Amino acid sequence: MTAINIAIDGPAAAGKSTIAKRVATELNMIYVDTGAMYRAITYFYLNNKQHFDDFESMMGHVDLNLVYDEVKGQRVILNDDDVTDYLRSNEVTENVSYVASKDAVRKYLVSAQQLLAENKGIVMDGRDIGTTVLPNAEVKVYMIASVEERAHRRLKDNAERGIPSTLEQLKKDIADRDAYDMNRDISPLVKAQDAVEINTTGMTIEAVTERILQLAKDAKAK
Ligand code: DC
C-alpha cells in the first residue's frame, strides 16, 4: 500500500468539499479546501485594497496558514487572525473569482498548496488541483452537477449558515462564476486529461464517496 494524494476539481457547489471531507475521514487523510485560501485573500483584498497599487505588492503583506482543529476542521489563519468564519459572506463570494484570476495570488497559493501535499496523505479540492497544483496526484476526480442541483444544494448550505439567498440569484451566481473560472487566462477550470469525471446530479453523498474510495483503493494497490 502506497501513500497517495487525491485531487478533486469541479465547478462551484458541485459537492466537492462535502465529498472530500468524507473521503479524508474514511482514509485518515487531511482535507485541504483551496477555495477557502482564495476566499481568505479576497477577504484581505476587500479590507485593504486602498493601500496597494497592485496584487503583486498586496501579496507581500499576506501570510496565510492552515491549521487543523479536531472539531472544527480546517481553519484559515491570515496574518495571525483566524478568518475562517468570514469567508462565506456574499461579499467575498461575489469577488473571489476576480481575485483568483490574478497571477500573483495564484503563484503564492499554488506553491503553498504544493508544500502542504509534498508528504502525501492529502485530499485537496479546488479548480486546478489535478491540472496545475498536483499534476502527479494518484487519484484525480472531476466532479460536475447541473446548475439547478448545485443552486439547490447551495441554498440549503446557506440557510444552515444563516446566509440570506434565493434560488434564482444562486443559479445566476453559479453560472457566472463557472464562466469566469473556466475562461480566465491562468489555470482555468478544466478537466485534467487523466481525471475521472463523476456527474453527481441525482447521486447520494454516500454513492459518490464510495466511488472515490474505490479509486483510492485501486491507486494504492498499484
Ligand atoms: O470552492 P469555492 O467556491 O470556495 O472557491 C472560491 C473561488 O476560488 C472559485 O470561484 C474559484 C477560486 N478557486 C480557484 O480559482 N482555484 C482553486 N484551486 C480553488 C478555488
Kindly describe this structure.
This protein has one domain: 3-Layer(aba) Sandwich (Rossmann fold), CATH 3.40.50. Helix content is 50%, strand content 17%. It is built from nine helices and eight strands. A five-stranded parallel beta sheet has the order 2-6-1-7-8. Helix 2 (34-48) crosses helix 4. The protein is globular. The chain starts with 5 loop residues before the first strand and ends with a helix. Bound molecules: 2'-deoxycytidine-5'-monophosphate. 2'-deoxycytidine-5'-monophosphate binds next to helix 2, helix 4 and helix 8. The site of 2'-deoxycytidine-5'-monophosphate has 14 residues, from helix 2, helix 4 and helix 8. This is Cytidylate kinase.
Short description:
Helix content is 50%, strand content 17%.
Keywords:
222 residues, alpha/beta, Rossmann fold, five-stranded parallel sheet, 9 helices, 50% helix, globular, binds 2'-deoxycytidine-5'-monophosphate
Instruction: Give the N-terminus to C-terminus distance in angstroms.
Output: 8 Å
Apparent shape = globular
Percent range of helical residues:
40-55%
Oligomer: single chain
Highest CATH level, the class: Alpha Beta
Provide mean pLDDT, rounded.
95
> Mind telling me which CATH architecture this is?
3-Layer(aba) Sandwich
- Element-by-element helix/strand order: EHEHHEEEHHEHEHHEH
The CATH topology is Rossmann fold
> What's the domain count?
1
CATH homologous superfamily identity: P-loop containing nucleotide triphosphate hydrolases
Work out the number of β strands. Answer: 8
Bound ligands: 2'-deoxycytidine-5'-monophosphate
Strand arrangement, major sheet: 2-6-1-7-8
